[in-house]
Amino acid sequence: MEIKTRIFELRNGKYRNLSELAQAMGLSVSQVYRVREGKRGINQKFIVGAKKAFPNYHLDELFYLDGESGHIDMGVTTVTERYNHIVQQYSGLNLPVCEIDSSGVGTQVGIGGVSQV
After folding, report:
1. Measured CA distances, 48 to 30, 57, 89, 102, 103 (Å)
2. pLDDT at 87 (0 to 100)
3. In angstroms, rounded to a whole number, what is the distance separating the alpha carbons of residues 95 and 81?
């Protein structure tokens, strides 16, 4: 599976162009452009940069695994579980992980313990 991003759709309301987005991410414009065009894969720096540029979004809202829905309201995903350690390593943030059971009830595991969502 390949990790994909939604940041290019999300940037429209926050950043006017790729240059502003790249600056907010702490990356070069060419790096961001190559990811957008599919010429470069998403790496740790890109994930951390996306979280810096969109601090109010969860990783599951910013990224998805190829084969999953590209919509923000997509239900079950494992992106946060797989990549939370990267964000923690580079930014010190501890992101909550949301797990959704077969009945559609979500349980948030992370900051502050466990709660139903």
Report:
1. 17, 12, 9, 31, 32
2. 63
3. 9
Residues with Cβ within 8 Å of 110's Cβ and at least 6 positions away in sequence, in order, are: 94, 95, 96, 97
In the chain, the domains with their CATH numbers are 3-116 (1.10.260)
- The rounded distance, in Å, linking the Cα atoms of 70 and 63 is 9
Integer Cα distance of 30 and 18 in angstroms: 9
pLDDT at position 90 is: 57
Collapsed DSSP state (helix, strand, coil) of residue 74: coil
10-residue stretch averages of pLDDT, the chain, 117 residues long: 89 89 97 95 94 93 74 47 61 51 46 42
